[in-house]
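FORM 12-B: Structure-to-Sequence Request
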């Protein structure tokens, strides 16, 4: 949403909007001249936006249906479009490069945009997180024919897009409150794959249960059969290094600017896409090396002789597994303390056993109450039950402020904050305390 707000603002439109709570991101928008408010104004919206013929209302499905402002715009007959519909309009006027998947789409789309921006092709991009190289989630080019779009499966939003080509990283079931069950979830991804232009192509992780009507390039980690495979991952003199097999050729010793097994896999997807678009190894290799990642995706905040502190957005068992596996690969002898905030009652219910299993890999678990987002509580679904099911040798349930106080006094360990809710509010004060 903030990328679209920035886009319209830069086009010269007057932009205002609602968010539930202030954040670093909303402060950035305000500094750019966008008016942000944090109270549901109902029908008392600013006068400048009451002229229906001059106002476009863009909303995200994350806004609850009972929201007063949304109901006012709907009842008064304003022109409303979902965020995905606006992105769909933008991809129809360019060659859209979608990045879809339950996991990895934000980092993958940011890396793809960074590689293209560094090349002669250039691109515009609408990203789902703040890319550190751009310090923004919006990239604009006046010359490029390509638009990179993070294709979000929530509420089937990606079905509004018109991709020329796409990456699909994973189809692990999620958002079952929307889709109902795993089969309908996978059907949503199949419908998205069917949207790819007949002259385009699909870059897909090997083994996904999808059928493609267009030319398909597969990628994987440690595969003899994928078109592109990541090999020999290692942590060497402070760099995450890996080799890549491209067909029968080998690219040796690629340095990845951000660590993580899953990020090496994301890089393989971008390599496949960029080779199909005509880029050569040199520009791809250099961009992968200098890529700084996305805010809240394996983001280092403290690295000193006493403690390492990393923050990550992981909020699904598969994402937590990838994150913790990478941390363990890099710090095999360190005590790992993880503070996790579950996101949504429905997700916690649907993947309860998976969360309990993956969090058990921590040496020490600090669990926060469930972040409800758009949901009301579900009876019998709470952090107390999850804490009981997790098998970490040391574990406790704390509020965010209690967790901040506890983690601030830890030493000789790796500290992780994990989750997609408002756990990010403790990142800055925890960083200051640990530094």
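FORM 12-B RESPONSE
SEQUENCE OUT:
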């Amino acid at each position: 949403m903030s990328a679209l707000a920035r886009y319209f603002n830069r086009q010269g439109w007057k932009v205002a909007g609602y968010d539930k709570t202030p954040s670093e991101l909303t402060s950035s928008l305000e500094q750019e001249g966008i008016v942000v408010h944090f109270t549901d104004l109902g029908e008392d919206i600013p006068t400048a936006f009451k002229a229906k013929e001059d106002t476009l209302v863009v909303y995200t499905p994350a806004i609850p249906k009972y929201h007063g402002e949304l109901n006012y715009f709907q009842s008064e007959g304003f022109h409303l479009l979902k965020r995905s519909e606006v992105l769909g309009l933008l991809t129809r006027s360019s060659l859209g490069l979608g990045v879809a998947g339950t996991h990895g789409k934000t980092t993958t789309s940011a890396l793809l945009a960074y590689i293209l921006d560094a090349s002669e092709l250039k691109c515009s991009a609408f990203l789902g997180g703040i890319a550190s190289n751009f310090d923004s989630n919006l990239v604009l080019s006046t010359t490029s024919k390509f638009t990179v779009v993070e294709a979000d499966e929530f509420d089937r939003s990606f079905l509004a897009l018109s991709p020329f080509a796409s990456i699909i990283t994973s189809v692990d079931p999620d958002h079952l409150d929307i889709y109902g069950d795993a089969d309908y979830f996978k059907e949503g991804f199949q419908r998205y794959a069917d949207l790819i232009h007949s002259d385009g192509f699909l870059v897909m992780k090997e083994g996904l249960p999808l059928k493609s009507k267009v030319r398909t390039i597969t990628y994987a980690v440690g595969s003899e059969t994928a078109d592109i495979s990541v090999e020999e991952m290692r942590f060497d003199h402070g760099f995450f290094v890996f080799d890549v097999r491209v067909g029968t050729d080998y690219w040796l010793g690629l340095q990845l600017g951000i660590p993580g097994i899953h990020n090496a896999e994301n890089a393989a997807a971008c390599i496949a896409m960029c080779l199909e678009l005509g880029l050569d190894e040199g520009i791809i290799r250099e961009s992968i090396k200098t890529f700084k990642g996305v805010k809240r995706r394996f983001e280092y905040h403290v690295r000193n002789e006493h403690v390492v502190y990393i923050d990550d957005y992981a909020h699904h068992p598969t994402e937590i597994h990838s994150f913790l596996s990478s941390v363990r690969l890099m710090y095999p002898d360190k005590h790992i303390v993880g503070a996790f905030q579950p996101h949504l009652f429905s997700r916690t219910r649907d993947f309860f056993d998976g969360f309990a299993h993956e969090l058990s890999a921590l040496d020490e678990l600090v669990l926060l109450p469930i972040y409800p987002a758009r949901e009301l509580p579900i009876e019998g679904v709470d952090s107390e039950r999850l804490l009981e099911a997790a098998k970490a040798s040391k574990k406790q349930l704390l509020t965010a402020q209690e967790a901040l106080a506890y983690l601030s006094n830890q030493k000789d360990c790796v500290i992780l904050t994990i989750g997609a809710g408002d756990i990010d509010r403790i990142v800055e004060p925890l960083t200051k305390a640990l530094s």
